[in-house]
Amino acid sequence: MEQCEQQDGTKDQLPATVHRDTLHRGLSARQVQMIAIAGTIGTGLFLGTGRSLAEGGPASMLICYTIVGFIVYVTLLLLGEMATQYPVAGSFNAYASRFFSPAYGFALSWNYWFNDAVSMASDLTAAQLVLQFWTTWNPWVISLVFWVFLVSVNCIHVRAYGELEYWLSFLKVATIVIFIIVGILVNVGVNTSHHYIGFHNWAIQGAPFVGGFGGFAKVFVTASFAYGGTESLGITAGETRNPSRNMPRVVKFVFWRQVILIFYVLSILLIGLNVPWDYPNLSDKTTTTSPFTIVFQLAGSTAAASFINTVILTSVLSAGNHALFAGTRVLYGLAVVKPRRYAPRIFSRTTPAGVPIFALLATSSISILCFGSSYIGSGQLWGWLQNIVGVSNQIAWLSIGLASWRFRKAWLLQGRPIEELKFRVGWTWPWGPYFVIVAVLALILIQGWTSIFPTFSPVDFVSLYIEIPVMAVMYIAWLIVKGTLAWPFPVDISGNPLRSAGETTPLIHTSRSEHSKIGLGAAFDIVDILAVDLYEDEYVEVSEDGVEDGVREQRLNGPFGPLWRVFYYIA
User: Is pLDDT of 240 > 90?
Assistant: First the structure.
């Protein structure tokens, strides 16, 4: 047994297999890039597009996914800027606490942990929907099998997670490339009907904007669900080797060139062209059919449709793996955040392999929600979970914008040269954070239109907006516990502070407006950016980083340099 000393001098006993340790930097650039892809290519693309097409039509789907994609791209650049400078556990949750407000960071962190935990439940529910392509026998069994497998893999080592995610992601990328080729062939006439489809499905009754503005607005939340996970790329910063080099490389390459331009936009365009929005069982209470499977069926190959459905099942496994990993690291970050923990210390304890075992078990336990599908219906439950996760993703992006705004302002006000930033995207200065904040707020407000008009739907409204009051309650609870809601010091009738006179007491009081600004900031736990230590937690390169860079340069300048360039471009 290992002994750990407490602040009061007592010692508690820990099992020999579990001790307080730090996370291990075991993820390579190759794995982190694939993790970024896996975070966006999952159930949202393979299954969520069916719901988007049925509710909004092909034009709404294409426009909404493109808009949300650009918002997320700018958000990821802002996050990469902070994660490269400060590669810490907790990622944007830690940045929100550090640069904006510890109270807000507390509420955000618990909200995002719940988001990841619910995402895993959503993915396990999606597995039941995918399985219905073959059989409706006891669909909960597949959820149980996946749950046991994912928890087992994540218990081993971060490298086990990274390697599993790499190969599952590679399979998804290859599948989407095949889908794009097949989708083009189906559209031009290589289909069971042997006729050219073109834009025919955009001209059928109800299309291309199904449900008018309401249908258009509803697609935003499913698009946000689909793009969710990109922000968790920053969470891997705490376990990424040489983050100063690898994080910018991952942010700039993976997301823009591959995920947005090719996989999402082109795939969604082909889905809208080939699959009519009123296709039977595309999306209803009991089932949701993947448009990818439908396209392969249209190509006339039942075997190919079964194969693509199998790949979709592996993508569900990948998405669940990603959500479990991210949720575990968020909960770990809550337990180690300074100067005051946001979660019990037990969640900071890790195995010798660097796995936060108790955080892992707590995160995976929320997945019991997926077994509610037996009573609600898999399609209905998955839709509600999709709404919750989609809005939570939007809150995360909003928070990254807020943290980036305060981070950049602190950097400039404290006089640090911009050249000292390890990663900076010049074209996002200064408008990037403001754009993300305004755009995400607009999404949150607009997407709930159909839950209110023309008739009020309590269940849909709650699934879309429940997280906002929950965050507000947690924010206020933190202020009450910390005792910051009380005014920092007594004031007179004019609003001037009443303090005991001393050597430092000014002869002339500050104005009421100045004092109110300072007092309100302190009362609501807003960080003083002039007092933020911008040097704390900055990444300092170690000898291993130099070795990795040296090996890379040696390969690029060697006789097989061109081949290595291709390898580094795609890996």
Answer: no
- Residue 27 banded pLDDT, cuts 50, 70, 90: low
DSSP label at residue 136: -
Res 523: pLDDT? 72
Whole-number pLDDT of residue 469: 93
Q: Are 451 and 212 in contact (CB under 8 A)?
A: no
Cβ(370)–Cβ(128) below 8 Å: yes
| Count of alpha carbons within 13 angstroms of residue 30, beta-carbon side | 12
Pairing of strands 19-20, 11-14: unpaired
Q: What is the DSSP string of 239-271?
A: GBSSHHHHHHHHIIIIIIIIIIIIIIIIHHHHH
Strand pairing of 349-350 and 11-14?
Answer: unpaired
**pLDDT value at residue 490:** 44
Nearest alpha carbon to residue 182 among 69, 295, 21, 18? 295
Which among 192, 245, 212, 248 has a CA at the least distance from the CA of 36? 248
Smallest CA-to-CA distance from 322 within 82, 27, 570 is with 27
- One-letter amino acid for residue 362 of the chain: A
Cα 474 to Cα 108: distance, rounded to the nearest angstrom: 9
The pair of structure tokens assigned to 443 is: 């999404």
What mean pLDDT comes out for the span 156-181? 81
Q: Which residues contact 419 (CB under 8 A, 6 or more apart)?
A: none
Mean pLDDT for 335-342 is: 77
**Residue 23 is inside which H or E element, if any?**
none
Which neighbouring-strand residues pair with 11? 5
pLDDT averaged over every residue in the chain: 80
Cβ neighbours of residue 297 closer than 8 Å, sequence gap 6 or more: 305
Q: 516: how many CB neighbours lie within 10 A of its CB?
A: 14
Q: Which residues pair with 27 in a beta bridge?
A: 240
pLDDT of amino acid 6: 42
42: left (phi over 0), alpha (psi -120 to 50) or beta: beta
pTM: 0.80
